[in-house]
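Appendix C: a fully annotated inverse folding record. The material below is reproduced so that readers can follow the format used throughout the book. The structure is listed first as tokens, followed by the designed sequence.
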């Protein structure tokens, strides 16, 4: 009985840790998008679809990358696989967003080597580079920090963030 309870607690804690990384990557993505597009446009822009400062597509990209990179070692392979996986995610997401929302959230028409303005080589290379930075530098430190958070605080924080994101999603979309 105790072993089953311990396994369930560990599974819940692992899920909360993954969700915390989902939120972190969504925030990093929002920051990247907001800073980049503010610089390009010359005025402060909020690139999020939601009211809170996150872009969930980056969180989903992180989950996809976890699957793709779980046995991958070395910066070059992380870069290559990360660039390919994020490009595929961006392409599929652009079609889904167009279909369900009826409009595009981004357009790469003005970038060289783009496909239908949905993906481009410049963004793919940037995403590959960000994968290396995240998986080799940020993630190990973040996991050490998360491991020190008391379980009860971790559970409450994850539930709170989840509820906030769901409410914002309902209000925004």
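Designed amino acids, in order:
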């Amino acid at each position: 009985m105790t072993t089953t309870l311990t396994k369930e607690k560990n599974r819940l804690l692992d899920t909360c840790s993954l969700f915390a990384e989902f939120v972190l990557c969504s925030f990093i993505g929002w920051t990247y998008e907001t800073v980049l597009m503010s610089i390009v446009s010359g005025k402060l822009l909020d690139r999020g679809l939601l009211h809170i400062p996150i872009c969930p597509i980056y969180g989903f990209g992180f989950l996809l990358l976890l699957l793709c990179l779980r046995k991958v070692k070395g910066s070059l392979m992380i870069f290559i696989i990360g660039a390919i996986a994020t490009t595929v995610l961006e392409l599929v997401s652009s079609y889904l967003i167009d279909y369900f929302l009826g409009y595009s959230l981004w357009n790469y028409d003005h970038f060289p080597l783009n496909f239908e303005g949905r993906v481009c080589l410049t963004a793919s290379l940037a995403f590959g580079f960000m994968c290396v930075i995240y998986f080799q530098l940020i993630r190990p430190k973040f996991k050490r920090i998360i491991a020190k958070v008391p379980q009860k605080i971790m559970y409450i924080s994850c539930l709170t963030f989840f509820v906030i994101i769901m409410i914002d999603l309902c209000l925004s979309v």
